[in-house]
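User: Here's a chain of 197 residues. Predict its fold as tokens.
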Amino acid sequence: MYTLNDAEQIMAMPATDDTWTVDLLDALPEDLQRYEIIDGVLHVTPAPSDVHQLVIAEFYARLREYLRGSTAARALFSPADVRRADRTRNRVQPDVFVVRLTDGKRPAYPYAMSDLLLAIEVESPSNPTLDYQVKRPLYLKEGVEYWIANPTARVVSRWKGVADAGEILSERIEWRLPGQPEALTIAIQELYDEALR
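Assistant: Prediction complete.
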């Protein structure tokens, strides 16, 4: 287990235009790109690779099984919109995430950032800055536990809060739904083996 610090991370991309809104984004023609806006700044990533999608599927399958029958939370995957306070200038789509249920029901869609308990991104080789320097503080400031899976290095980086320096895990990772007696334990190498076989 290693500690992550700012010196190990890639510098954040400077914002050049912060005038994007959800309405402008919705008016774009459909293509294979992935569009997210954070505080009015547009972030575009290419269509995900098969490796990206296979790793997402494995995380989702494990979370779904862990939460089966739960009236407190549900696992989801993107494309699905999550917004924060300024809902007109913020729309993200975490690869895999867990939403809090109220009286066994999903919150109103699009989801608010405060509805999330866990967000998982599979590292984008074309733009790791977005995952590490833009999305990480966004989720952590909202109290959402945040993981980044790196299929090339076969590790998962995890942060539990704003003050958490983070850790890089290669053997196993655990997550516990509040109030649940047992934690979900994921054998990381087994997950990558299953996803990439």
